[in-house]
Amino acid sequence: MTKNSYQKCMDWTERNIGIGLVRLMVRALTAVTAAIYCVMAAFLLVGRDGRLIRFILVPAVGFVIVTLFRKVVGAKRPYEIYDFMPLLNKDTKANSFPSRHVFSNMIIAAAVFWINLPLGIATGSCGVALAVFRVITGVHFPKDVAAGAVIAVLFGWIGFYLI
After folding, report:
1. Which domain holds residue 33?
2. What's the first-to-final CA gap in the chain, in angstroms?
3. N or C end of the chain: smaller count of CB under 10 Å?
């Protein structure tokens, strides 16, 4: 995306949705995903379900790998390259690729999907919405969120179904 396309997206978002509502929705999507993950982990713990260890380890290991990879890549964010203020309060430098927010949401969706299909689909839908918001608010490029989602799905598939 170009600076002009980001500006158009952000102007449209500000005019039609509002900055406050967008920020609230981003926080809500993140909180709902975290709550689903915690409740599901508690459910597995109370039920002494043997899947709990993998449910926790696969996302945790993936998070560490993605975090380290981002540091190595050091990709700049749209607002750094195009010099604009993003709609989300963000001043982080670099570490844009891949999106760790989207990775985290989607690896949690994969974990939940492994345990409960309908709830996993709902959590994945939150991840898709979050990916859109991360782009239209100017904090990520589309490739950042797409890569975060794809890496999460692949890592989840390997961690939950192949190993």
Report:
1. 3-162
2. 38
3. C
CATH of the domain at 18: 1.20.144.10
Phi/psi at 119 (nearest 5 deg)? -70, -35
List, as one string, the DSSP characters of 82-148: HT---SS-----S--SS-HHHHHHHHHHHHHHHH-HHHHHHHHHHHHHHHHHHHHTTSS-HHHHHHH
pLDDT in tens, 135-156: 999 999 999 999 999 999 999 9
Determine the longest span between alpha carbons in the chain, in angstroms.
53
What's the CA gap between 66 and 64, in Å, rounded?
Answer: 6
Claim: this prediction has a pTM higher than 0.85: yes
Q: How far apart are CA 145 and CA 77, in angstroms?
A: 12
Q: For residues 107 and 55, what is the distance between their CA atoms, to the nearest angstrom?
A: 10
pLDDT band at 90 (very low <50, low <70, confident <90, very high): confident
Q: How many domains does the chain have?
A: 1
Q: Distance from CA of residue 163 to its chain's centroid?
A: 24
Q: What is the DSSP letter of 76?
A: P
Instruction: Give the pair of three-digit tokens for residue 84.
Output: 């604009």
